[in-house]
Amino acid sequence: QAFYYPEEAGLAFGGPGSSRYLRLEIHYHNPLVFKGRRDSSGIRLYYTATLRPYDAGIMELGLVYTPVMAIPPGEDSFTLTGYCTDKCTQLALPAAGIRIFASQLHTHLAGRKVVTVLSRDGRERQVVNADGHYSPHFQEIRMLKEVVAVFPGDELITTCTYNTEDRSRATVGGFGILEEMCVNYVHYYPQTQLELCKSAVDPGYLHRYFNLVNRFNDEEICMCPQVSVPQQFYSIPWNTFNRDVLKSLYGFAPISVHCNKSSAVRFPGEWEKQPLPSITQRLPEPVPHCPPAPGPQPAAPVPLNLGELRR
User: Fold this and answer.
1) Cys staple from 57: which of 118, 191, 215, 311, with CB 3.0 to 4.6 Å?
2) Residue 85 lies inside a defined structural domain of this protein
3) What residues in the chain have per-residue pLDDT under 50?
4) Has residue 135 been placed in a domain?
């Protein structure tokens, strides 16, 4: 479906200080290298000189694009979590709060589930958006069924679940398609200066993890700053101990919080080695509304020769 702003908010552009250009960015996925395909997709913009009551904005939630967040190979369900902390929202959001009306969940190829939860005073209050059957090949901006109000002091916690059973080495965070992301781009109003509210594990604690792994495997402790984080992850022998300790590290280690303005400058404050938010009460697991239908089961899938699809 086409994406429309709600009646009470719109994206402001034009006027003094506004860019005279718009850029459309399209990503193509063509693993079978089909040739001769033509693309007629595009974008149609509707605009008006009559401003709506609120300017809308976009905010990034989840994990920072960094290799310190990694997934071991051979995992059927490995979770990573990024935090927009109460300290950031307390500082950056207006007293009346903001209203989230749409959301675009995003991972790369290993992503299987994504969920963002609103927490207040240590208690989970509301799911902002969730997809328990996420596909990286079908990503869209989804209008929320219910507008989510976020106030100063609230926390927005984004968790992604990954499957790396088909991979032989660690998958690190980053921009490449074979690296990973965990992001929720939320559309909200009124627009604020806060454009990015994300986190990653404290690099110093990750360095301690690498030292522990080296000791456990009877290897010399590598204190070499020239060895990159991805290379250190790639060299780890992924036994049960190394996997469990990494999961534990991500579950208790302090985080580096990025509470950034649209200029990419952080809001003033101390953002390193921040404790993980304490959640004392969680939302109940959702119960499916559709019971299995009686009757015959669907027929088995029929394999297709992809060569027949060429035109």
Assistant:
1) 191
2) yes
3) 221, 311
4) yes
Domain count, the chain: 1
Residue written as token pair 């509304």: 289
Residue 138 belongs to some domain of the structure: yes
3-state secondary structure the chain: CCCCCCCCEECCCCCCCCCCCCCCCCCCCCCCCCCCCCCCCCCCCCCCCCCCCEECEEEEEEECCCCCCEECCCCCCEEEEEEECHHHHHHHCCCCCEEEEEEEEECCCCEEEEEEEEEECCEEEEEEEEECCCCCCCCCCEEEEEEEEECCCCEEEEEEEECCCCCCCCEEECCCCCCECCEEEEEEECCCCEEEEEEEECHHHHHHHHHHHHHHCCCCCCCCCCCCHHHHHHCCCCCHHHHHHHHHHHHHCCEEEEEEECCCCECCCCCCCECCCCCCECCCCCCCCCCCCCCCCCCCCCCCCHHHHCC
On whether residue 30 sits in a domain, the answer given is no
The closest of 209, 199, 178, 215 to 29, measured between CA atoms, is: 178
Please write the tens of the pLDDT for every residue from 80-112. Answer: 999 999 999 999 999 999 999 999 999 999 999
Residue 102 is part of which domain span? 57-202+254-266
